[in-house]
Write a structure and sequence with these properties.
Largest sheet: 2 strands, antiparallel
Order of helices and strands: EEH
Number of strands: 2
Structural class: mainly alpha
Strand order of the largest sheet: 1-2
Helix content: 40-55%
Strand content: 5-15%
Bound molecules: zinc ion
């Protein structure tokens, strides 16, 4: 499903009109063809940082 940055939400494929958001009319990119939404990438990065932090805590705990 394409993501609309202006509305800050996913838009149903069936409601997209000529590649534009039906709510605000902004041209939106299909997430399957275009770049990933930055929020999705940020979420993955945040999860990775959290897991590394937890692993680090575990190593520190085991070493004491
Ligand atoms: Zn929109």
């Amino acid at each position: 499903m394409p993501w609309c940055d202006a509305c800050d939400r996913l838009v149903e494929d069936s409601t997209v009109i000529d590649g534009a958001c039906p709510t605000c009319g902004t041209q939106i990119v299909d997430t399957q063809q275009g770049p990933m939404p930055w929020k999705f990438r940020f979420m993955i990065a945040a999860t990775a940082v959290y897991l590394i932090w937890r692993a680090w805590q575990l190593i520190m705990w085991l070493s004491h």
